[in-house]
From TrEMBL:
It comes from Occallatibacter riparius. InterPro entries: Cytochrome_P460 (IPR032033), Cytochrome_P460_sp (IPR038142). This is Cytochrome P460 family protein. Residues 51-186 form the Cytochrome P460 domain. CDD domains: cyt_c_I. Transmembrane segments: none annotated.
Length: 196
């Protein structure tokens, strides 16, 4: 029983994420944990996939609402999740650690009148954006790796195969305005704020 209290090994999901929690001097650093998590969504060639268990094992980071062209409705809602330990590491250092994974769900919405007024809610999953923090350039020949991240978009029909071909063409245009914050729009994520 004492051994179980000291060490707990859990295998989570088909993705093969292994989390090893050890008390005492053998405890891993947050960065080592993030690298392990990041490696679970990256294959040997550097191709990403959507982590199967992100809704249950990742931390909710925040949401974005994209307005419709006309009217009061919202056309899309994006929910963002961060891999375990990424938020705590960011609060301590102001940076995402190596191996941190961000998953953004993209939903089409439905809008209707409810008691508080016109309300839009997530209705149909359209796809995912996945990013893995990596500044060591481990896949220099992969066009989806660069500027400190691995980048990919996935249609909801296939979370294992990206539709992205080149991050500079497919991803960077949207993220360029957030260059000063490592290409992440941190202003939209309240959990990243440091405690006062």
């Amino acid at each position: 029983m004492k051994i179980l209290k000291t060490m707990c090994l859990a295998v989570i999901g088909v993705a093969g994420v292994i989390v090893l929690a050890v008390n005492g001097p053998m405890a891993r650093s947050a960065e080592a944990k993030q690298t392990k998590v990041g490696s679970s969504v990256v294959d040997a060639r550097g191709s990403l996939h959507v982590p199967e268990d992100y809704r249950t094992s990742y931390q909710f980071l925040g949401s974005w609402a994209l307005p419709a062209e006309t009217g009061k409705s919202v056309k899309e809602i994006h929910n963002v999740y961060a891999s375990p330990g990424a938020i705590d590491a960011y609060r301590k250092t102001g940076h995402f650690p190596e191996g941190a994974v961000l998953v953004k769900e993209r939903f089409h919405t439905a809008t209707q009148q409810m008691t508080p007024g016109t309300v839009s809610h997530a209705e149909k999953l359209v796809g995912w954006f996945v990013m893995v923090k990596e500044s060591k350039n481990v896949h220099p020949d992969n066009k989806l790796w660069g500027d400190g991240w691995a980048w990919s978009y996935f249609d909801s029909a296939n979370p294992l195969k990206t539709t992205s071909t080149n991050f500079k063409v497919d991803c960077l245009n949207c993220h360029q305005p957030a260059h000063a914050t490592d290409y992440i729009y941190t202003l939209g994520y309240p959990p990243l704020a440091r405690a006062h």
